[in-house]
Amino acid sequence: MEAETQKIAPRPAPKPASKREQTKLQNRQLILDAAKQVFAELGYGATTVRDIVRATPLASGTFYNYFKSKEEIYQAIRDEVALVIRPRLREERNRAGTVEEFISGTFRTFFEFVSRDEVNFRNLRHSADNTRVRMDTPEVIAGFEELREDLESAIGRGVFPPVDPDYLMAAIVGVAFEITERMLRREAPDPVAAADFATALFMGGIHALPHRANGTA
Questions:
Q1: Which end of the chain is more exposed for a tag (fewer CB within 10 A), N or C?
Q2: Third-level CATH fold of 70-208
């Protein structure tokens, strides 16, 4: 007796967003786009919520329907940028077969992204007129964690010597952001030169780092 073929009901198509939901999404994006531009022009410290609202066609009270403060929208911008660049960085690192390919690919991908999307990144970077805005939003932290995981994976594959992945992650992140800060201040930012410098810096010293004993946390 042949088993009866079970019929699988097709999944219902997702409901299109209502007009109200579409308006909310559009308004939120208007505020984000305005904030990116104002932060880039005035700097984080000098920008006020009023400056951001003035750069949109929205009523002044609309801002607070979406964001509680200037800091919250700043964090949203950083997360938005991180979401775009993280998959590109992981893809580049995961196909690296040598230490140099891993390091060079990470820096080159990051610096090229920054140079193409400079306005967005000026909102992500440490502002000269701000007291080191913390890089602790969920998506940015997740990006740091992905770098540490990729380093651990590369160590496990024998691409890297058994160095401390936490310290190395912190060093790569620190160098990336500090060189980016300097690169963006130049009249003609050169991501290739920046990546070459950072890669040479690490390649000159990475094999001199102390190795960890097996099982060391």
A1: N
A2: Tetracycline Repressor; domain 2 (1.10.357)
